[in-house]
């Protein structure tokens, strides 16, 4: 996992599929500027609202996430000895990161009903029980930084991240559950502007949810079973950063594309950028 930050440093993990617990931030010269080794089975990352001097990034671990903020790593203290949050959803409008929360180390396939809200400002966290389970493609963030979770009962839960209260539940798809093989198709959610796009793999449909009104605004029949989902808007995914080098100016952070919601039948990838949800 590697993520270039706005100051040109590189947020990266070290290790192998079998052994990994180190997260580093490397300078432009490759020197280690910050490091933590307290992140067993590191998996998944999300950026939150920037700190005072650097970007803020969270990485998931099996004993509570780690936060990189203002040049230093901070550990989130959790009560459970095993507390895996390998799928994270952040928003540049919020210092709070949404994550899954699994506590059964021996489970073949844990089906949690609780999500976690991790506050990158002070390393605190809050658990929210939704009363229905979810999977690694269920997590997203709304236009104001609100947390969105698509649960097995087919509802889109909207959570106020500051209070931890579920402020709305919208019926979107029929009840479902994750397959034993996580690589089989299942629902996915992505957000662009004030719309959340939700796939219904079982019925080959795509639903556009108006997050302002809390209702399904449009449903589209799909020719194939959707697996992946990407939404592109033609706007930059991150603020542009200009660098002058050899008389040239380079613009980083722009992702030029068409305004479209594009379900794909391709191979799955983890929400945190790695292959698989990290069961």
The CATH homologous superfamily of the largest domain corresponds to YVTN repeat-like/Quinoprotein amine dehydrogenase
Percent helix, as a range, is under 10%
How many domain regions? 2
Q: How would you state the average pLDDT, rounded?
A: 87
CATH class of the largest domain: Mainly Beta
Number of helices: 0
Rg calculated over all Cα atoms: 19 Å
- Structural class by secondary-structure content: mainly beta
SSE layout:
Layout: E1 2-4, E2 10-15, E3 20-26, E4 32-36, E5 45-48, E6 56-59, E7 66-69, E8 72-75, E9 88-89, E10 96-100, E11 114-119, E12 125-129, E13 139-141, E14 147-150, E15 155-160, E16 165-171, E17 189-192, E18 195-200, E19 205-210, E20 215-221, E21 228-232, E22 241-245, E23 248-252, E24 260-264
Antiparallel strand pairs: 1-2, 2-3, 3-4, 5-6, 6-7, 7-8, 9-10, 10-11, 11-12, 13-14, 14-15, 15-16, 17-18, 18-19, 19-20, 21-24, 22-23
What does the model show?
The protein is mainly beta and 279 residues long. It folds into 2 domains: 1-129, 7 Propeller (Methylamine Dehydrogenase, Chain H); 135-269, YVTN repeat-like/Quinoprotein amine dehydrogenase (Methylamine Dehydrogenase, Chain H). It is 0% helix and 42% strand. The protein is built from no helices and 24 strands. The chain has strands at residues 2-4, 10-15, 20-26, 32-36, 45-48, 56-59, 66-69, 72-75, 88-89, 96-100, 114-119, 125-129, 139-141, 147-150, 155-160, 165-171, 189-192, 195-200, 205-210, 215-221, 228-232, 241-245, 248-252, 260-264. The strands form 7 sheets. The protein has a 4-stranded antiparallel beta sheet with strand order 1-2-3-4, with no helix packed on it. The chain has a 4-stranded antiparallel beta sheet with strand order 5-6-7-8, with no helix packed on it. It has a 4-stranded antiparallel beta sheet with strand order 9-10-11-12, with no helix packed on it. Strand 3 (20-26) and strand 4 form a beta hairpin. 38% of the residues are buried. Residues 242-260 and 264-275 have low confidence and may be disordered.
């Amino acid at each position: 996992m590697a993520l270039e930050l706005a100051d040109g440093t590189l947020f990266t993990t070290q290790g192998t599929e079998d052994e990994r617990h180190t997260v580093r931030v490397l300078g432009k010269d490759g020197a280690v500027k910050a490091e933590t080794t307290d992140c067993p089975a590191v998996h998944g990352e999300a950026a939150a609202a920037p700190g005072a001097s650097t970007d803020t990034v969270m990485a998931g671990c099996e004993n509570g996430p780690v936060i990189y903020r203002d040049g230093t790593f901070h550990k989130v203290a959790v009560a459970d000895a095993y507390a895996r949050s390998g799928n994270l959803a952040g928003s540049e409008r919020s210092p709070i990161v949404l994550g899954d929360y699994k506590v059964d180390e021996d489970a073949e396939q844990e089906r949690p009903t609780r999500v976690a809200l991790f506050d990158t400002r002070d390393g605190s966290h809050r658990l929210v029980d939704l009363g229905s389970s979810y999977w690694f493609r269920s997590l997203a963030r709304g236009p104001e930084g609100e947390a969105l979770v698509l649960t097995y009962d087919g509802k889109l839960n909207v959570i106020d991240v500051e209070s931890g209260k579920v402020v709305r539940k919208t019926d979107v798809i029929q009840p479902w559950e994750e397959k034993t093989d996580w690589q089989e198709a299942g629902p996915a959610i992505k957000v662009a502007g004030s719309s959340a796009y939700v796939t219904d793999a079982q019925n080959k449909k795509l639903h556009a949810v108006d997050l302002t009104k809390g209702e399904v605004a449009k449903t589209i029949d799909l020719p194939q079973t959707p697996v992946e989902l990407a939404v592109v808007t033609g706007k930059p995914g991150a603020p542009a950063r200009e660098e002058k080098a050899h008389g040239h100016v380079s613009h980083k952070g722009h992702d030029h594309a068409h305004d479209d919601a594009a379900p794909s039948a391709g191979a799955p990838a983890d929400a945190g950028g790695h292959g698989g949800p990290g069961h």
